[in-house]
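Request: Not sure, any thoughts?
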Amino acid sequence: MKGFVFHGPGQSAWQDVPDPAVKEATDAIVRVDAVTICGTDLHILKGHVPEVRPGTVLGHEAVGEIVETGRDVHTVRPGDRVLVSCITACGRCRFCWERTYGQCHGGGGWILGHVIDGTQAEYVRVPYADMSVHTLPGALDSRDAVLLADIFPTGYEVGVLNGRVQPGDTVAVVGAGPVGLAATATAQLYAPERVIAVDLAAARLDAAKRLGADAVADAHEGPEQLVEDLTDGLGADVVIEAVGAPETFELCTRMVRPGGHVANVGVHGGPATLHLEDLWMRNVTITTGLVDTYSTPTLLRMAAAGRLPTSSLVTHSFPLDQMEEAYDIFARAADTGALKVVLGEPQHDVVAVRAA
């Protein structure tokens, strides 16, 4: 089969790789029908995730069909159409019992495309299949469903829920990439007074508006002042960091009100300064987190009912064998306007959605 293989910083290829096989009784083999690329994959290609070994097939999000299962898999069987979660859960360790599956100590957590071969291939082996794949409603399109493998649970759990968004809140989302846009969309489930999106790219700010942001701000044009003006000088109740850069994290800590919450979602490849000399007396709560995906079943039901704007985030589609081109388009998002790229079935021509 073919897979997209990491060979070291700046080196990767769509190439022949061995077919996966059941290794443990809890494994499932999934034929990949739809897969997407994550910003974390770009971090890996830049060498920011050193535990990823050269020779690893990348990817941790997919929709596909079960083709084989181990003898201890009971919730799915060959022929089932499933969502492959970005998080694998053993279901037995302390963290799994607490539903913090991202911290699984039984051989799970974020392992696909990280410490074992991932989903950007024609087939993928999924450990602990009973806990790590979700049967899909028949009416849910693969292009929509694949966005529930990572970005929607991440934006919702690590951003909205960790940030404790409440009715009437002012929520500022710094970073209008895919995860930031998912946070913008799911924050509205809690009836905030307003959602403010901050980004450098006009196309992404337009996308935030389409997803319900009440106000947008260019990151270079005074987002702090906009938040201050809209909140009578108090600051935002919840600020969600969805970039993963020192300057955006520090911006978030300046925009939050006393007693507010900063929810860090972004993947940081270097240190950021925590200005405790300013924050120590402001009663600010700062949370970090890797997604646990405990919300995935709920989000799947909402998507099947048409209550999540998933398809609006897909700006480009490719056949699976155009993985290298898809990576190029996604990596140059500032030029291409890419939000999420989806590869596989249905095999659409490349589509670019213009900014409104």
